[in-house]
Amino acid sequence: MKKFIIILFxxxxxxxxxxxxxxxxxxxxxxxxxxxxxxxxxxxxxxxSQIKRKVKxxxxxxxxxxxxxxxxxxxxxxxxDSKNQIQxxxxxxxxxxxxxxxMYDTRKRYTEININNNLNYDIYNSTHSRTLTSKLIDIFNDxxxxxxxxxxxxxxxxxxxxxxxxxxxxxxxxxxSIKSKYYTYNAFLNPYDGRYYDEKARSLxxxxxxxxxxxxxxxxxxxxxxxxxxxxxxxxxxxxYVNRIGTPIHSVADGKIxxxxxxxxYGKTVKIKHKNGYITIYAHLKSWPRGIYNGKWVKQGQIIxxxxxxxxxxGPHLHFGVMKNxxxxxxxxxxxxAKITLWGKKRKQFLSYINSLQKEYNIALK
Length: 366
Ligand SMILES: [Zn+2]
Prior knowledge:
Layout: H1 2-15, E1 18-23, H2 30-36, H3 42-45, H4 49-55, E2 63-69, E3 72-79, E4 84-91, E5 94-101, E6 105-115, H5 119-127, H6 132-140, E7 153-164, E8 167-179, E9 184-189, E10 196-197, E11 202-206, E12 217-220, E13 223-226, E14 233-236, E15 239-242, E16 248-250, E17 255-263, E18 267-273, E19 278-285, E20 297-298, E21 303-306, E22 317-324, E23 327-329, E24 339-341, H7 344-361
Antiparallel strand pairs: 1-2, 2-3, 3-4, 4-5, 6-7, 7-8, 8-9, 9-10, 11-24, 12-15, 13-14, 15-22, 16-21, 17-18, 17-20, 18-19, 19-22, 22-23
Bound molecules: zinc ion.
């Protein structure tokens, strides 16, 4: 981006070109933008369908750049998502469109906070960030009970801010530690796989998420039950989680989708195969997101469907089942099993990375 601005400005000195910036508002549309600037609407029609979808949802508040000569638009840069922007170039009435990456400035910040009042309040007070607390909780959720943090708990956070025109667009925690009189936990973001590990290369999260969704309540546990539709005693081989239709459903672990489609009774369903002989099943879905298909590899936490009421179902809920070596098991039993530990080359790579990070930022782990 800097390069582009420099080029623009040197142009503007030489040829009296004018640079305008403008904020994208709720009233703006890409089509309207073309019309207003006397650009051919074929620019829109010739876009690939995937980009067409994106220009319909340009985020409000984004800054767009216009380069004009005697009020004729020569170039425009319009962000279409957090990573890319569309560039329109007018070469003597011939229009060229390109998708180019958005350049961000980044800066790292380090802070040490004593939690005296309340986690959210104290972190906000020290960093003025509204998202850091939830990111921190997400990292340590399996280890720390955030509803009962002991007094004088010390928190260290090294984080990276992604900025565009001075506005923070994203925040990423690179290292964090939480230390109370009862425990100390360290978490390093592994740049090679995007997960958090402690100083011994053990993942902070288990192989499985505690649940595949945010839920309001559990309406049926694993075990024998009187079936509400079939009016018979039957084995309920999963857990039923209740929430609103459309609630995102996440894969509880890395794995490969081995079934996506309709199963009698289950309705719209996804089945995922994981390491160590595990299979998870997600049933009664309303729909699936784009890019979810048979054979696709998914990451822990990835959205694989939306809560629904399809198949034999008495109301909106997710039926979640876990199979180990071909037998249904109680999903709550997998909660704290198998942590991921890095071994071999990946371990070496990670340990040498955190070693240099500790030196650079003077991080003491105890
Ligand atoms: Zn069920």
